[in-house]
Amino acid sequence: HTYWAPHGAERFLDMVRGDFFSTRVALFRSVRRFICQTGVAGDPVVHQAWHQKGTILDDVQWLDKLDDLRMKRGYLSFAGGGRDSRNSEFFFTYRDIGFF
Q1: What does the radius of gyration of the chain's CA atoms come to, in whole angstroms?
Q2: Which of 1, 85, 94, 95 is the 20 to 30 Å CA partner of 72?
Q3: Is 76 strand, coil or helix?
Q4: Residue 14 and residue 20: Cα distance in Å, rounded?
Q5: Residues β-bridged to residue 93
Q6: How many CB atoms lie under 10 A from the CB of residue 88?
Q7: Backbone angles phi, psi at 55, to 5 degrees
């Protein structure tokens, strides 16, 4: 569903095609029955190269704002620290959750 988040989908597919994940990317910040975060390349040189690519623009929010648990089990979302701040780190959900 690349149309759900075109910028995020493009970055993720670039990471796949660019062998980002061949560097033994660790899973971290795993919280049982909640989320698991990943996206730091196992090779510092590779991670720095992706960091230098810069951040990606935020995608238009399409999730139902009336749904208290709008992040459904298995959804993937890039982690960010403000507007247009997403880079290579992302998380996926173990269950339906609300935003945090």
Answers
A1: 14
A2: 85
A3: strand
A4: 8
A5: 35
A6: 23
A7: -90, 165
d(CA 17, CA 87): 16
Residue 80 has pLDDT above 80, yes or no: yes
Q: Which residue is associated with the tokens 């959804």?
A: 75
Phi, psi of 37 (to 5 degrees): -105, 150
In this structure, the number of other CB atoms found within 10 A of the CB of residue 50 comes to 19
Collapsing DSSP to helix, strand or coil, 73 comes out as coil
Comparing CA positions, the residue from 31, 40, 27, 99 lying closest to residue 67 is: 99
Phi, psi dihedrals of residue 27, rounded to the nearest 5°: -90, 130
pLDDT tens-place string over residues 11-42:
999 999 999 999 999 999 999 999 999 999 99
